[in-house]
Amino acid sequence: MSTKTSHQNTDRARRFALHLPVYFRQPHSETWLKGMTENISYTGMLLRATHPLIPETSLELRLQLAVGANLNAPSEIRCKGAVVRVEQANGSETPVVMAIAIRDYRIVRHGVLKEGRVGISHCPDPSVKASRRK
């Protein structure tokens, strides 16, 4: 009789402990909420936030990155995903931790966006807008 072992942990995508600001909202919502990643992989992220959402909630997410030699020219990762799990965070300013499954993502360079499209000009963080004008 043979025994099978679960390889669940070995099949898991590599996670990177990156603490990045992330904006998220439900599709078609005008309001962007802010959170911070705890870790991220190509399949998902662990997100700290003040606004808990229920599992299976669909989301649009935006992570801003400064890349390349010119760190003043940010790029943005835009994702579509869903809440997988929600936990109460202990002893933290952000009361909830949400596991988010990423279904689709793309990298967008802000330099190629036109006014009126979702981009840096519509980013909810005023400090990001200010850095774009420099």
How would you describe what is shown here?
With 134 residues, the protein is mainly beta. The protein has a single domain (14-133), classed as Beta Barrel (Thrombin, subunit H), CATH 2.40.10. Helix content is 9%, strand content 43%. The protein contains 2 helices and 6 strands; from the N terminus they run αββββββα. The protein has helices at residues 8-11, 126-133; strands spanning 21-25, 33-40, 44-49, 58-66, 74-88, 96-109. A 6-stranded antiparallel barrel has the order 1-2-3-6-5-4. A hairpin with a 7-residue loop joins β5 (74-88) and β6 (96-109). The radius of gyration is 17 Å and the shape is globular. The chain starts with 7 loop residues before the first helix and ends with a helix. The relative contact order is 0.18.
Radius of gyration over all CA atoms, rounded: 17 Å
Domain count, please report it: 1
* CATH class category name: Mainly Beta
Mean pLDDT: 76
Largest sheet: 6 strands, antiparallel, barrel
Distance between the termini: 69 Å
Q: Which bin fits the share of residues in helices?
A: under 10%
Number of helices: 2
* Arrangement of strands in the largest sheet: 1-2-3-6-5-4
Quaternary assembly: single chain
Shape-level CATH architecture: Beta Barrel
CATH superfamily: predicted glycosyltransferase like domains
Low-confidence stretches are 1-8, 112-134
Q: What fraction of the residues are assigned to beta strands by DSSP?
A: 35-45%
Structural class: mainly beta
Number of strands: 6
User: And the CATH topology?
Assistant: Thrombin, subunit H
Question: What's the order of the H and E elements?
Answer: HEEEEEEH
Q: Write down the overall geometry.
A: globular
